Amino acid sequence: GGEQEEQAESFGDLGRAFVFALLAIYVLLAITFRSYVQPLIIMAVIPFGIIGALIGHLLLGLQLVVLSIFGIIALSGVIVNGSLVMIDFINENLEQGMSIEQAIIDGAKSRFRPIMLTSLTTFLGVAPITFETSLQAQFLVPMAASLGFGVLFGAFILQLLIPALALLEYRARVRVKNMLERRQENLV
Question: In the structure, what pLDDT confidence band is assigned to residue 2 with cuts at 50, 70 and 90?
Answer without folding.
Answer: low
